Amino acid sequence: MAEYSTYGSVAVLQVNNPPLNTFTRHVLQALVSGLERAQRDPAVRSIVIAGKGPTFPAGADLEELLGTAAAPLLSNLRMVDKHVDTCQKPIVCAIHGTALGGGFELALASHYRLAVPSATLSLPEVHLGMLPGAGGTQRLPRVVGVKSAIQLITSGQDIKAQQALTLGLVDKIVQGDLLKEAVSFARSVEGRPLEDRRISQRTVPDADKVDEVVEATRKTILRKARGAIAPLTCVQAIQASVLPFAAGMAREADLMTYLMTSWQAAAQQYVFFSEREVRQWSHPRDKHINFRTAKPTVIKSVGVVGAGTMGAGITISLLQAGLKVVLLEVNKKQLDKAIAVIQKTLRQKSASQKMSQLTTTMDYSQLSDVDMVIEAVFENLRLKKEVFRKLDVITKPQAVLASNTSGLDIDKIAAATKRPDKVVGTHFFSPANVMRLLENIYGKKTSAETVATVMQLATTIGKVGVLVGNCAGFVGNRMLGPYRSEALFLLEEGVDPQDVDRAIEEFGFPMGPFRMTDLAGNDIGWRRRIEARLTTEHGPPPDTPALYRRGDRYCPLPDMLCLQGRLGQKTGAGCMMLQEAKDDLTENIYIRFRTDGSVFDLRRLLAHTKTLEELILDLLFADDCALLAHTEAALMSHHAPSMCNRYDPGSRTALPDPVVLQMIQDYRQEHGFKKRTISSQEIVERCLYSLINEGFHVLDEGIASRALDIDVIYLFGYGWPRHTGGPMYYVERVIGLEKLLRSLETYSARYPNHSHLQPSPLLRDMVAKGGSLAALGTTDSKL
Ligand SMILES: CC/C=C/CC(=O)SCCNC(=O)CCNC(=O)[C@H](O)C(C)(C)COP(=O)(O)OP(=O)(O)OC[C@H]1O[C@@H](n2cnc3c(N)ncnc32)[C@H](O)[C@@H]1OP(=O)(O)O
């Protein structure tokens, strides 16, 4: 637990609790015993504390912290730190690996800190809904000042050794043998006065500015916290660091108790474990196929087909993980653009050497030797099948073929090949090199080995891989459907898009549904609806009521907006006038390609296409096509209209657009909707409960095998607020399943034609029988 040895006058205490040397009560007790022994021994004149194996202690043991032992664990840690702080013999911490949370706090309580260049220090408690409750909020500001302490503690960010040295958090960076250096350093400081080495005895350097600093940062922290209570509570504790040390510690302890007993801390700790537990996948159809039994194929080289935004992002992720990549794109200009983006991103990350691992090509035969291909072409089933047909012929027989589809049928794609067992979905999220989620989709014939391979790939490239079944939209996008529909129905009834966005953002999402659509592109859904023949212009049967499709309520507002050229932020500055183009095609209508800025006459393009509809499908949705405008002058002068908002040139701030508001008003009038006032609570409940209700369907059908898989998908792919634990956790632990059921019953009685508000049979069953999502596999055992 804590190994004791002596090197002459130096006692060395090495924490030994593999793999991360986390603090359990026993480890802490062993440390106290070791410290007492060293203090008692007259031959010992200094002490070194270090971690055995790969790291300095990475903080409190979370398994123990989440159980009944939390309070004794914390008080033991405070006791150790007090022993260390007040010790009459100098204590040197020798830091390597990750000194996190309680580990870093122990280092701050010590008199000297040495670190190897690769060491990382941080106080990440805020991510667990807590604060550094063993003196971290009191000692850190005494070294770096209140301002920096607020920044470091409320972000929980990593501090690399060199930065720690600059900040005064470590005294020396050690290049050679850390333990040897620490022992000799300890020897060199023996007998020196210790008073000025005790951080607890120092004053906060910017104490006179504390109120000013807190005031200046409060607004930013509140905005970033999006409803999480931990960040502001951390600030309150840091504020107390200007008090005498004992008073500050007492305040820290009170605030820590408040946070540790909050539902948000429990939710965030659930997130921590769920993020790791998704790796322990099992195949819903056959539990014997799982992460233990299935062996992944070793992937060293990957082909990426399609160099659009997604393809480039995927390529960057693969290169950063050290894999060889062959990027194929049939459009030379697009390929050049992608290469520039990849180069720029890698350069920013100081990883330019990774470019040597990249081959770019327009020739499919270059993919003959790769271990795996990820297809990232345009979201069109016909096109994807075509690509897979080619890949099946060109690639080696054992190569895995993955599609980065966001919702198309994996089985249909697999059927285009003679190796459906090697075909799988790998749904990346945009920007693919940033977003952590990788939704992996198995088809009917996908082999266990292929599943294991893509789950392993997720880990290799630093993503959180979640295994799900095959259905339209898979888990994430399928659940988003009802959420979006309900948001649109709310517009019909009287709220403005900004009201919906505000309510959802106040709940904690970074973006409401309309701003999100603006960012992602309104055309993505439009294209899907056109292909499904749902839009008015593209073919519902003549007798279909205007606001219904296939028996379900349908809101055509987004289609109407698309027809006005409101495709989202990507349309840039300009306005697409398709409707007018259809009626009266003049010579002045152009399409501009963003890739190279070239402008084409729409009439000439249409001459090569049978219908305008075909043009929309084949061309206008292409990634590189930016906008249409009546004239270049109009193009220059126009604000960038997005789906529901207006964006001033160069800005991403969504502003209400009077044109859209008028359009919605006309629409309400035309269809006989009577505008009413709708509360934020109703907005949040209708949007989120319909999404969660779909989650129950997804579980019921075995598309997701555990509630935690859904939570992780939403947390890492859709910006669901982390402090609430994810949609399924939130509804079970915070709202309550019974309340969800009652609310859905109330809303579905009011809106019998909104099918997604009808409570799912699984939810009804659970409420009736007192079942829980935990029984379906959440991480309850760890809570
Ligand atoms: C006493 C009161 C309060 C004190 C304050 C604290 O100290 S709070 C805790 C502060 N520490 C942390 O938050 C550290 C959390 N851990 C990490 O950030 C990472 O695990 C790591 C240390 C950076 C290592 O990352 P890596 O990617 O190498 O490994 P994993 O994350 O996959 O972890 C490996 C397994 O270890 C489990 N684990 C990690 N940290 C803890 C922990 N603090 N307590 C218990 N278990 C921990 C993790 O769950 C993994 O387990 P598996 O079973 O393998 O999934």
Short description:
By secondary structure, the protein is of the alpha/beta class.
Q: Would you count the extended β strands for me?
A: 27
Residue runs with pLDDT of under 50 for 5 or more positions: 572-601, 620-641, 778-783
The rounded Rg comes to: 29 Å
Q: Under the CATH scheme, which class of the largest domain?
A: Alpha Beta
Fraction in beta strands: 5-15%
Give the CATH architecture of the largest domain: Alpha-Beta Complex
The fourth-level CATH homologous superfamily of the largest domain is 2-enoyl-CoA Hydratase, Chain A, domain 1
Kindly identify the CATH topology of the largest domain: 2-enoyl-CoA Hydratase, Chain A, domain 1
- Helix-strand category: alpha/beta
- The helix content, as a percent range, equals 40-55%
Q: The biggest beta sheet, please?
A: 8 strands, mixed
Cα distance spanning the termini: 24 Å
Associated small molecules: ligand L4473FGL
**Could you give the order of strands across the largest sheet?**
14-13-12-15-16-17-18-19
Oligomeric status of the shown chains? Answer: single chain
Number of domains: 3
Q: Figure out the total of helices.
A: 31
Mean pLDDT, to the nearest integer, reads 88
Family: In the C-terminal section; belongs to the 3-hydroxyacyl-CoA dehydrogenase family.
GO molecular function: (3S)-3-hydroxyacyl-CoA dehydrogenase (NAD+) activity; delta(3)-delta(2)-enoyl-CoA isomerase activity; enoyl-CoA hydratase activity; NAD+ binding
Organism: Branchiostoma belcheri
Pfam families: 3HCDH, 3HCDH_N, ECH_1
